[in-house]
Write a structure and sequence with these properties.
The chain is mainly alpha-helical and 70 residues long. The chain has two helices and no strands.
Length: 70
């Protein structure tokens, strides 16, 4: 079984890949522009338990975009 705290690792990977899909490489943003995206809050919906060797689909949906936030 995947316990609740482990889902945050999957969420973080989805967040990083979501930024990458927008052309935003986090290491490049830090090194070239001094920009870092920090997670301020997290909300997760648990739809079903995950078990060993399951293939999981994780998605990230920005709810709003500000001048300095997503």
């Amino acid at each position: 079984m995947v316990y609740y705290a482990k889902y945050l690792k999957f969420m973080e990977r989805a967040r990083a890949e979501g930024l990458r899909s927008l052309g935003l490489e986090q290491d490049q943003l830090i090194n070239e522009f001094g920009v870092l995206f920090a997670v301020r809050s997290v909300a997760l919906d648990y739809l079903a338990p995950a078990r060993f060797n399951d293939a999981l689909q994780v998605s990230v949906t920005p709810l709003k975009k500000g001048r300095a936030s997503l």
